[in-house]
């Protein structure tokens, strides 16, 4: 299953490289709202979420925050700045109590020097991230909000299933404010859609969480809005 995930999901590496990196990692615990690193900081490590969820975001000079992505269990991140040598291009913050694995930059470079094929794995992972960003940009321009929101919920649902194993229903850590920032929509619009889907039996909404009851209903929503 891990091999299949590495072929499709941003942040997931093949088992051999994943295991090699973990041998050099130290573990850091983060409380909810605690920052892992800040925009402009030195790229001195590679990171992996062991437990919890981290938010990657940027903030405009006017103070408006835009969420780039949520990083979940067993996903690596921070590789772009690590290899380019440029300062971090975003903030990283835990949105729930989390545990993060930290691999020093020197250890990453040493692994790549001894195993050039590992570098290809990192390049493939960066390519998946780039494709995800382009897809999200296309969605913002071409697809209506219901389809975009349903897609984000389904993707989070799929990640949770892959990490925890197949079980139903799946409960996701979910913030309407963060989702509105990610999709470029108002919080009121997100709330209205969630309530509508809840009445239809597709999901159940609670404080900072969302339970997927009927994934197929959400999938049909995306297909209907595409058509």
Structure description:
- The longest helix is centred in the middle third of the chain and has 27 residues, at 116-142.
- A hairpin with a 2-residue loop joins strand 10 (203-206) and strand 11.
- Helix content is 49%, strand content 23%.
- It has nine helices and eleven strands.
- Helix 4 (105-114) crosses helix 5 (116-142) and helix 7 (176-183) packs across helix 8.
- The chain folds into two domains: 2-138, Jelly Rolls (Sandwich); 143-226, Winged helix-like DNA-binding domain superfamily/Winged helix DNA-binding domain (Arc Repressor Mutant, subunit A, Orthogonal Bundle), CATH 1.10.10.10.
- The model has no long low-confidence stretch (mean pLDDT 88).
- It has a four-stranded antiparallel β-sheet. Strands 2-7-4-5 form a four-stranded antiparallel β-sheet.
- By secondary structure, it is α+β, with helices and mostly antiparallel strands.
- InterPro entries: cNMP-bd_dom, cNMP-bd_dom_sf, Env_Response_Regulators, HTH_CRP, RmlC-like_jellyroll, WH-like_DNA-bd_sf, WH_DNA-bd_sf.
- Keywords: DNA-binding, Transcription, Transcription regulation.
- Residues 33-112 form the Cyclic nucleotide-binding domain.
